Fold this sequence. Notes:
The complex is a heterodimer of chains A (125) and B (316). With 125 residues, chain A is an all-alpha fold. Chain A has one domain. Helix content of chain A is 86%, strand content 0%. Chain A is built from five helices and no strands. Chain A is elongated and about 85 Å long. The model of chain A has no long low-confidence stretch (mean pLDDT 81). Chain B is mainly α and 316 residues long. Chain B folds into two domains: 2-39 and 57-84, no CATH class; 121-313, no CATH class. Chain B has helices at residues 2-12, 14-28, 63-89, 105-117, 122-130, 132-153, 157-161, 163-171, 182-204, 213-231, 233-236, 242-268, 289-313. Residues 30-38, 40-44 and 46-50 of chain B have low confidence and may be disordered. Chains A and B meet through helix 3 of A and helix 9 of B.
Amino acid sequence: MRTMLDWIRFALSAVLTVFGLFVLITATLGLFRFRYVLNRIHATALADTLAVLTILAGLALAWGFTPVSLKLLAVVAFLWLTSPVASHLIGRLEVTVNDQLPLEMQVEDSRFVSVEKEADQEVRQ
Amino acid sequence: MSRLTERLHRMLHADDRLDREMAAEWEEAPAGKPASLPPEEVNPDTPAEQPDWWISVPFRQGRGLRRLLVVLSVLLCVGIITVLVITAQYLPHFGQAGNPANNEVSRRYIENGMEETGAVNIVAGMILDYRAFDTLGESNVLFTAVCAVMLLLRVSADKRRSAAYQLELETDDRMYEPKNDLILRSIARLLIPCILLLGMYIILNGHLSPGGGFSGGAVMGAGLILMLNAYGFRRMERFFTIRLFRAVTVCALSFYALSKAYSFFTGANHLPSVITPGTPGMIFSAGLIPYLNISVGLVVCCTIYSLYTLFRKGDL
C-alpha cells in the first residue's frame, strides 16, 4: 500500500535524477563543443560534482535511508574530493606547458591595467 | 621513419659488417700478422650519436651462438605449436550434451563449497581452494608481465650514468609536470590512508564477502600510485625499491606455491592435514584462503605500482 509520502518521495527522486541527467548532457555537450582545454574543464567539472550529487541523492531518496545511502554519500564525498583535484592538475599542466597561453586565453589582469592607466595619465600630464 | 629503419638495420647488422670487414682484412693481411680493427667512428663533437652504443652491445656476441639460439627458439615454438594442435584434435565438439563441461562439478561447488572450504564467499573458495593452481598461474602471469616490461623498459645503469640520458631527462616533458602541488598533497594525505585501508579490508575479507586478492591488490596499488604522484619519486624510493619488490613478490609467490603444494599433497593422498576449514563466517577460517589472498594481493599491488613506475621512469 503506497501512501502519499511514498509518491512525494518518488517524485522528488525522479526530479533530482532527471536534473542530474540534464546536467550530464550539458557537460557532455560542452566537452564536445568547446575547443580549448580550460573551457572543457570548466564544462565537465559540472558532471563530476553537481550531476553526481543530484543523481546519487535521487537514488538515496528512492532507496530510503539505509546503509546503502551512507555508501552513496561516501561515493559523493570521494568524487567531490578527487575530481576537482584532477581538473586542477590538468589545468595546471596546461598552464605550465602551453607557451601560447596569453594569446589563446586573453585574461585581463586588473593590476596590470591600472598600472597602464596610471602610466597613460602620467604621459598625458 | 626511414631514418629509424636505417638505424635499426645498421644496429642489427653491425657485427655482420664488422665480421666481413675483418675477414676481408685478414685475407689482405700477410699471414701471421694480426689484422687491425677498423677505426672507431666516434666523433666527440656530436653527442646526439652517442646513445646508440649500448644498444649494439648485446648484438656483438658471436654470430654462431646467435644463429643457434634463433634455430633453437624456432624449433621450440614449432614443437609447442605441434603438441597443442595435436591435443586440440582430441577435444569434444562444441555444445554437445555429453561434454565434460556439463558435469557434477559446479553443483558440488555450490552445494558443498562452504563446508568443504570454509569460505562464505563461494568464489574465493573456488579460485583459492578447488582451483588454486589457476590462481597461482594468474599471479605468475602478472609477475611475468612485470619481468617482460622490465626487460623492455628498464634503463640500464650504464645508460643512466651517460650524459645523453641526463640531457634527455632534462628535456623530457615529465619535468614540466606539476610537482609539489599543495592541493594534490593535502587531498592525498586525506585519501591515501582510506584507500590503503579499503584495499586491506577487501583482501582480508576476501573469504567472507565479495573481493579478494586481485581486487584489493589493485586498490592498494592505485593508492601507492596516488602517493607517488603526490609526493614524487624520491620519497617513494625510500621504501619501495626494486629490492623490496623482488623480496615481496618472490616470497609471496613461493609461499603460495609451497602451501598449496602441501595441501594438494595431503589432500590427494588422504593424509591428515593441519589445515582445517574452521567455522564459516569467522575471520580466521577457510583454511589457507585468507593467507593466499594476502599473498596474491601483495603480488598484485607491487605489480601495478611497478608497472606504472616502469612506464614513467624506466626504473623502480
